[in-house]
Amino acid sequence: MKITEVRPILLSQVYTDDEVWGWSGGEVRVWNSTLVQVFTDKGVYGLGEMGTGHYLPEAAKAICDSISPMLIGKDPFEIEVLQRKLYKLGANWGRRGLAMGVISGIENALWDLKGKALGVPVHSLLGGKHRDRIRAYASGGMTQPLESLKEEVASYRERGFTAVKVRGGISAKRDVEIARATREAAGPDMDVMLDAGQGYVPEPWTVLEAIEVTKALAEIDLFFLEEPVRTDEIDSYAQVRAASAVPVAGGENGCSIYEFKALVDANAVDILQPDVTHAGGISEVKRIAEYAALYGKPIAPHVFRTGASLTAHLHLLAAIPNALICEYQQIANGLREDLLVEPIEMVDGNLIVPDSPGLGIHITDEIIEKYAYKPGHIQRFKVESD
Length: 386
Prior knowledge:
9-stranded mixed beta sheet, TIM Barrel, alpha/beta, 2 domains, 13 helices
């Protein structure tokens, strides 16, 4: 079996006014998704998601088109060999950010292809399941008045979720108000997480400000506080974590085992959040998880894309021993469901790991037409403080 084509697919979902959402770092009116199909001479294809491509879809497509010729004619089953070649190819430009997102999407598509070709789920190819279900948390709570936030959180509890994450990152005072309102709506038995999102705001909190926030949040009994300082400030993370009474999570923007090794070695976070659509692919995040396990660090991945991302993470979480919890995005996103071969089932707050061949995803002409790409629409980020 040989690879014959690598095809990027750009899709868009245009939000209605009541679907638009925002957070401390910006606003989203059009949700772009970037997928990639890998075809073979045997008629089998694999599908993956280039996670960071939704910020700059056409740039992701250009990178994908430029590196894909080296895959033509290669054996698609040699997944880690091909991933390493793509990584080395980008020695001067491709080991961080968008390029790693493209490599991740291709690598995930190869896992999907191999599973489909062999008729087995990806978690079987990764060594088998440590678990057949994983606890999920509802990931929502975007910027809004406190009363509507409380209604949203209560709705998750009523649907059977046992954990919820909401967005903060505004100020110590406001974040405490958000966390307190969330705890009130969630009740004492539902775990609450707060995403400070300081990797996205124009002027992230200083170490002292972040520590002030963690102290103020101690009374809320948080499951974790996410990204309390700038993404790449490892020393700052370590200082905040050492002073915090709240577990600190981070790493959603990290790329490759090397960045996560630095986080672990510095004891900078309690919980790691790699994303298989951004950090290098499923096998790279498996390596990250294995290294983290040596130091007692659990994995709670960033999962905020389409169904291709969700199922890829479920297979990965099934196959690692130190899986903690799975993010289950709750914003308006039709591609969260439409790409799935079978719907994801949630039982008692746990997502059931799929057993369909490959990743359990597909793409059709109808889906591509339904979510036709809208050029020129990107996420709006704040570029200066209000």
